[in-house]
């Protein structure tokens, strides 16, 4: 494998292991075995398991920000429709994964927030980036009269992100997409009054 | 230590480790060291680490059900006030823990739902017991006209539990009780229209 290919393969395998097993339970040795990469190569690309984990987080955040922007910046439809389509698309994605894995960054937050301050701070700022995108979309909804001006979009954005993360946790536990459907129906019909 | 004392000490220490480090990352050896109990005694009480973990879950569920009942069956106040007081009491508890740990059973669900079917099934049914208590309380609120009869209490109870779990995850990540306050304000002011 070429240098870039090796690094990409390690990150891809690492992402899969972190989704399946979490951070603490994943060993570098099994990543090396699964990719067929020697230990020396791993440490050429990553200083430590921690740096490896942080780079996996960066990759996931970058991809997810692009996915969010694809939906939330689609000006051909109304702001709340964009938000709804985004959650519907994520719903399809998780349902196709048999309700496994959930949100990698939510999982890592739950696992590591009390243990590793570098992970916690980075995850906190990534979630803030997601929230900012929700806020922007909700502000646009208020501007065109799609959302009541009485509602605080900062609080709504927080609530929306947190509740979605909780719905994903319960999706994993129940192995059913019902918690995601419940989230969408209450969020759009009752909270945002779509 | 007497037999019961030994078992109680093991479960208490195990609960603390599971809250701090999760299941996979906790070793029996460190539980033994922290309690000063020999390995043989551990296996006298528990067939395996898995059985130990499941008994910790049972204990936590039993305690939490009692806590829920204390609040939700207090007929001296209205049903929605009971629900609100319950969340306020949990808020105080988590704030006093410096926003660490979160919900043990939610954490274990996130960590183990894809890995261990015994844990997953047990956790699923415990969460269903919590939901049933919310449903009962919300039905009582509808019966006395405190909650709109148009709302589906089963969906609301699911949403309430899932959103609370997500708020706890974000409380851990942000090390702030704000997500719990956001949960309470949107849930009671907007969703349940308290």
Question: Quick one: biggest sheet of chain A?
Answer: none
Order of helices and strands of chain A: HHHHHHHHH
As a percent range, the share of helical residues of chain A equals over 70%
Terminal residue distance of chain A: 51 Å
Tell me the strand percentage band of chain A.
under 5%
What would a concise description of this structure say?
The structure is a homodimer of 194-residue chains. With 194 residues, chain A is mainly alpha-helical.
How would you sum up this structure, described in words?
Two copies of one chain form a homodimer. Chain A is mainly alpha-helical and 194 residues long. Chain A contains nine helices and no strands. In chain A, helix 1 crosses helix 2 (28-35), helix 5 packs across helix 7 (117-143) and helix 5 packs antiparallel against helix 9 (178-191). The first copy, chain A, starts with a helix and ends with a helix. The model of chain A has no long low-confidence stretch (mean pLDDT 97). At the A-B interface, helix 6, helix 7, helix 8 and helix 9 of A face helix 6, helix 7, helix 8 and helix 9 of B.
